[in-house]
Amino acid sequence: MKGVYRIAIKQFDKVKCDFPNFKRDELKEVISVTSLFHDFGKATSFFQEYLENPHKSSNDAERMKRRHGLISAIVTYQIVKRKFLENSILPVFGFIIVRRHHGNLEDYRKLLIISDEDLRNCRIQAEHINYEELQQIVKTYDISKNLFDSFQYGDIRKLRREDKKFSTEHYFVLNLLYSILLHADKTDAILNDDSIQESKLMMSKDVCKFKNTFDNNPENPIDAIRENAFQSVENIIETLDKSERILSINIPTGSGKTITSLNAALKLCEKFGHDHVVYCLPFTSVIDQNFQVFDKIRKITNLPEDSGVLLKHHHLTDIRYNSVTDENAVKEYSPNEALHLIEGWESRIIVTTFVQFMYSLISYKNASLRKFHRFSNAVIILDEVQSIPHHYWRLIKEMLNKLAAWLDSRIVLVTATMPLIFSEQNGEIKELVYKKKKIFADLNRIELDVSNLKNEKMEWDEFCESAKKLVSYNPTKDILFVMNTIRSAKELYILFSDLEISHKLEFLSAHIIPKHRLHRITNIKNHSYNKPMLVVSTQLVEAGVDIDLDIVVRDFAPLDSIFQTCGRCNRENRNGVKGKVILFSLKDSNDWIPSGIYKNFLKQKTKKILDGKGIIPESEFFKLANDYFQEVQIGGSQTQSDNLLEKIAKMKYADGDQKIEMKLIDDNFTSSILIEFDDQVEQFWNKYQQVLDMENGFEKNSALKQARRNLAEYIINVPKKCLPIGYNDGIYHLSKNDVKEFYDPITGFNLDKQLPQKTETGFY
């Protein structure tokens, strides 16, 4: 109890918050009580006997008497209630977070229901507690048996109607308190009160030192843009007012967004006293890419290779965490400890995914909300922010505004195509790049050819003929084809495979295992071949994949996706020769649904913006993107945002299918399969099976997560129709003997085959 209390108070003291209707000293009192009494129920003789002999068999009635959540919550409620006689909400908040500290949050009204059976059980437990011994441990609060005897369930039941008075503020307050308790409880249990050394934060001057190692040419227009944007962001941050919290870096693709953004984040920390940076990106591959850049900067600063300095967190991250003392001694944490520290974002700079960020801000789950307190006193970078679905714009706007104001943080939206989540015109967001419109207007690297859209719904055979001519007419150019479906990309690749061409042909799709996909992207990025490249890909190359080719052909898509694809063309303005991006609109049919992955609404808005145009110079992209997002804003539905905001305001965390939960990954039509492609994954699979046999506990949990991360390099998502009929056993395991029949090492999974029934179950 004391260990959790010490960690919780230490964490609360580091948190910055400023709520309109809740005083900081009151919230600290709630944290004090909840951390001290969250395990009060373990003081029963029933639980103490269990600790003496945990392997002794027991029945349901005996196990029920060992439960500690509800009685601890009731005692917490009573103590907080005595402290705040005029405040009915804080005692209830204390009750809720203690009751659910081992589970997920539920609908507020549901959390205040206590069954007669549970109440009787608590009364029995209350008779079997040594209050005198407990009082010696917790001397500042009266915890006599009267504490429980005076409890009136009717008082809590009446408070179920309080949800009519709730607002988003209550959601933030409860989540913050809940997060700190979860953090303290898990830290005490896993690290055994082993405090983590405070690591140093990088300095903005070190980013400048790193930038100065580049061989920039002031005569090169794109190098000039990079330098101007970098300096502009630095200068404007110097003039920022304390009230300006929502910020923007809107600069073209290839103009140094990564380094400029990190420098901005560190500048903001230095100016306003923020103590950590959360850098969010949409895809794991881009995270690895940016992390490598940040790690190079770390080396230049002579900061140690310390996870507390720089940390990467996504579902594929290796479970490794180490810290370096002032005497340069290295401590390597156990897998269980490392998992706790990684998932708790225990670092000065955290590089993570939109999914991790959004699902921790907007959630009902214990595992996600445990790092909610890390949103406080942070600079949060949302890079490639256009990836957020438009139907969540209102939700994101509301939540980011509240987060920045109430948790004393700053948000920086970064992109080449800025969605209209916030209005710069209305002063809702502050742009950090001076004269950004001129920067975009001066661009002259590429031109976008949309003249083929006049031939709307082009037949596949006609498109293939055009594609062959393009390749044959450009034998020395690097060319990229971006298709909307894996099937159409594969067919195009096969077409080129049968031709005699001067190019090195490469194929990319999400049906190739991640291990091989990353290797191919690296080769394309580094121009590892002795001949020009011809790359056929799906839209996975759109955002953040740092490849650069001369000619790009794109199947029709929403305008922001088209512009992201443009960012893969002539990024470096090579030799002063313009790159070309050519847009086609292929016919939808049963065989080809090239545009089917995108919502009709977005396609219609794009058609409206591009109607009647032919060759579009890069200098016009900024205006077109702004016009497009205005159309999306006017015509788009915000029903999903409004529904979630209503649940948040009434704290309807989870009740059946109704949950506070965003849907950033649409998995309704796909399922995951493990491809046992080589001896390595076979070893990983055998290791996973061994871990399953471990005794349940923290060690098994961390070992399972590491085993799943190892397997993840071999997992792809395929249409559910490809799985056996009725299969519903988690991730399907395609064993080594069956791989050749269903998976091609070049083009990936065979969409035309149905996987066989399995006697073994999959895994989760």
SSE topology sketch:
Elements: H1 2-14, H2 24-37, H3 45-52, H4 60-66, H5 69-83, H6 89-99, H7 108-111, H8 116-126, H9 131-137, H10 146-149, H11 153-158, H12 168-191, H13 204-211, H14 221-239, E1 246-250, H15 257-272, E2 276-281, H16 284-300, E3 310-313, E4 322-324, E5 330-332, H17 335-343, E6 349-353, H18 354-361, H19 366-369, E7 378-383, H20 393-406, E8 410-415, E9 430-431, H21 436-441, E10 446-449, H22 460-473, E11 479-482, H23 486-497, E12 504-508, H24 514-525, E13 533-537, E14 551-555, H25 559-566, E15 579-584, H26 600-610, E16 615-617, H27 621-635, H28 639-650, E17 654-655, E18 658-659, E19 670-675, H29 679-692, H30 698-712, E20 715-719, E21 732-734, H31 739-742, E22 743-744, E23 748-749
Parallel strand pairs: 1-8, 1-9, 2-6, 2-7, 3-6, 7-8, 10-15, 11-13, 11-14, 12-13, 14-15, 19-21
Antiparallel strand pairs: 4-5, 10-16, 17-18, 19-20, 22-23
Helix pairs in contact: 1-2, 1-12, 2-5, 2-6, 2-12, 5-6, 6-12, 12-28, 13-15, 13-16, 14-15, 17-30, 20-28, 26-27, 29-30
